[in-house]
Design brief:
Layout (H helix, E strand, L loop, with lengths): L6 E5 L6 H11 L10 E5 L5 H8 L4 E5 L16 H4 L5 E4 L2 H6 L4 H14 L2 E6 L3 H5 L3 H12 L5 H4 L3 E4 L13 H27 L2 E4 L7 H5 L6 E4 L6 H10 L2
Bound molecules: 2-phosphoglycolic acid.
2-phosphoglycolic acid binds next to strand 8.
């Protein structure tokens, strides 16, 4: 038994209309009924957060956003602040590799967003992970450590209790090539966990959850989640189908 409560979060990315989101949540709910031992989170697009909140009220499914801006308000056309999200959801994915690769996010902007989220009362799911080139060059540990440290600058131990880390090797996302359970656990246990312990102390650093993401499926989830420092998953493609998402949630039990 792990002391950390597992979490399975579905990152829907840019998929589902409002009505499709409603239907997907309604299809997931009966399949995960009464599961209290796993924190279950769905992260739909911003425009679906309202319907997600309505459909999940009073249930064991929680809601997260996929991104936010670090400022509280102002002339940032097209952006959404943490203060706007906090009425709709409890979690927010920050620094996903797609946002880093396509939308110019850096450790510095990730760090600003982490602070803004925490200040507003949202729990950040901060994503880190190396590219294929970095992996092949043997830079995984250095890159991941740098991203963890860079994203968490000036976060206090008290705040860190509300931060979730997601290790998502870029080469494993959407490719069907998940990291091996031992390989992913090595990064969680020997790279990320020691940094968290150093930054926030052994107790808080030991209690923070580190999720794995990248081609998690109903077939590989149980083995991944059985590893000592894999505390659940951030699931993309497989979170869009109620059966596979529910099976992944159950694999975390
Ligand atoms: P995937 O995506 O499960 O489709 O690989 C994971 C993610 O990007 O969070």
């Amino acid at each position: 038994m792990k002391s950390r409560k597992p979490m399975v979060a579905g990152n829907w990315k840019m998929n589902k209309t409002i009505y499709e989101a409603r239907d997907l949540i309604r299809a997931i709910l009966p399949q995960v009924e009464n599961i209290e031992a796993v924190d279950i989170v769905v992260c739909p697009p911003h425009v679906c957060l309202g319907v997600a909140k309505r459909e999940t009220e009073g249930t064991n499914i929680m809601v997260g956003a996929q991104n936010m801006h670090w400022e509280a308000s102002g002339a940032y056309t097209g952006e959404i602040s943490a203060g706007m999200l906090v009425d709709l959801c409890q979690y927010v994915i920050i620094g996903h590799s797609e946002r880093r690769a396509m939308f110019g996010e850096t450790d510095a902007t990730v760090n600003k967003k982490v602070h803004a989220a925490l200040k507003a009362g949202l729990k950040p799911i901060m994503c880190v992970g190396e590219t294929l080139e970095e992996n092949q060059a043997g830079q995984t540990a250095a890159v991941v450590e740098g991203m963890v440290r860079g994203g968490l600058i000036d976060v206090t131990p008290e705040q860190a209790q509300n931060v979730i880390i997601a290790y998502e090797p870029v080469w494993a996302i959407g490719t069907g090539l998940a990291a091996t359970p031992e390989g992913a656990n090595g990064v969680h246990k020997d790279v990320i966990r020691p940094v968290l312990r150093e930054l926030f102390g052994p107790e808080v650093g030991g209690a923070m959850r580190i999720l794995y993401g990248g081609s998690v499926t109903a077939a590989n989830a149980a083995e991944l989640f059985s590893q000592s420092d894999i505390d659940g998953g951030l699931v993309g493609g497989a979170s869009l189908k109620p059966d596979s998402f529910a099976a992944i949630v159950k694999a975390a039990l």
